[in-house]
Amino acid sequence: MKLPVAVQLYSVRDEMEQDVYGTLQKMKDLGYDGVEFAGLFGEAPEKLKAFCAEIGLTPISAHVPYDDMLADPAGVLGDYAALGCKYVAVPYLTEEHRPGTDGFAATVAGIRKIAEAAKALGIQLLYHNHDFEFVKIGDDYALDVLYASVPADLLQTEFDTCWIKVAGEDPVAYLKKYAGRSPVVHLKDFEKHGSAGGQLYQLIGIEEEAAQADAGSFTFKPVGAGMQDFPAILAASVEAGAEWVVVEQDEPAAGDTRLDSVKQSRDYLRSLGW
User: Which of 92, 222, 121, 239 is nearest to 175 (CA)?
Assistant: First the structure.
């Protein structure tokens, strides 16, 4: 069994800023079956939905900032319902909302509130992890505490396989652990040497750990060009009941463009028969 392949449009955000509809067409031309939005780029959701339908590209999901959804759950999520997204994901938590801070309990409650609003609109809320959720609360990782605290009918997983691996855990094991609760899986590759420190977050535009950036190296890579075992991850995604896999590359590797990167990822997956 093979799953449809989407691309997270954050991977080509510069191109989306310049030419939304041309970039969507390019994603289709590269062989992607769907897209996961990262903002609407000033476009009406109904217009985006109609264009995607016209070219045969499925708008499966969107990454929407946690604070935006919490401030106006029905209003913000309503745009993505109008776009036709089946899923919306909490993409990232700023430091004050993370596990290990006094704000995490409120974050869990906030995610439940957002999830309830999403369910009322026919949208399934997902949580997209990084590595900072892999701190212990008691005997369990905060990521597992989150999923234990918010029931599966309200919150499902969008495992980012790169960040699970960076945290020292096995993406395949996590997919197996959450089989039946993992409808969308992020495929992301990387090379990491040493601790890398704050370089990991500098690469996604966050400077909070910059002082540690000299402790090794970290580079995002096209899928299949780095350290991940994607045949095993893809097989585990199928076994876990995933509906989609999504290519994401936060920054291109040296010498590549954003479009080069998503093309290389799609070509690699095609070489595996996907």
Answer: 239
